[in-house]
Amino acid sequence: MNTSVIGDASETALVKFYQPIEEITDTRNLYPLGKCKDGSESKMPFNSTNKYALSIVRQEGSDHHWVIYIKGAPEKVWKYCGRTLFEGKYKQIDAEEKKRFEAVNLRFGKNGERVLGFAMLPLNKEIYHENYQFVTSSPDNFNYPMENFIFVGLISLMDPPKETVPFAIKKCQSAGIKVVMVTGDQPPTAAAIAKQIGIITMKTN
User: Fold this and answer.
1) Residue 192 host element (H or E)
2) Beta strands across the sheet bearing 52-61
3) Angle of helix 187-197 relative to helix 165-174, nearest 10 degrees?
4) Whole-number Å distance between alpha carbons of 179 and 61
5) What angle do CA 111, 113, 117 make, to 5 degrees?
6) C-alpha span between 5 and 13 (Å, rounded)
7) How far apart, in whole angstroms, are the C-alpha atoms of residue 44 and residue 121?
8) What is the pLDDT along the chain (205 residues), one digit of tens a residue?
9) Which domains are present in the chain?
């Protein structure tokens, strides 16, 4: 995809991944965002405190008008989930499923890849009717459930450090400057990147 995309690196990568599958503007038109009580769109952007982004879109089903979608830090998204989407069906999360999730997430993270988790929750149409007005300003005042989500999957993104970073780190260290990395990535990813750029020099498992 050669078309220019506006947004941060992760959002840009997701758009470029999806665009060859289907025109992304067509998909967005099929599933419009709902409205909040203040007239704004029913979405909450990612922030470092919540570690996930949320959108509520119109998506008709036999028992729902609206579906909540969340994406963000895998371990955070996973905590909201009670089911997974497996071969088109919902499956209750058990110990084996949890173990599989943790293993895959750890493998991606140790490779230094930025990992995002995705989940969805259809809202009962008997309560959340067609003209329901949502509140998305803060998790403290959401007027819809945030439990028993359906875990959809993981996406890992390659986001390598700039080539000049290891040299800059080494130069700072040689001058006696202590370098600290602040990141929103999960610990395995952060550790792998810190090792790549020379902040961590000892061998890690």
Assistant:
1) helix 187-197
2) 43-44, 52-61, 64-72, 114-124, 149-157, 81-86, 89-92
3) 70
4) 52
5) 125
6) 9
7) 15
8) 566 777 777 888 888 888 889 998 999 999 999 999 999 999 999 988 899 999 999 999 999 999 999 999 999 999 999 999 888 889 999 999 999 999 998 888 777 778 899 999 999 999 999 999 999 999 999 999 999 999 999 998 876 677 788 788 888 888 888 888 777 666 777 777 777 777 777 554 4
9) 31-157 (3.40.1110.10), 165-197 (no CATH)
Indicate the residue type of 76: K
Backbone phi, psi, residue 69, to 5°: -120, 135
Calculated CA dihedral for residues 166, 72, 150, 95, nearest 10 degrees:
40
For the record, the structure tokens of 174 come out as 């040689």
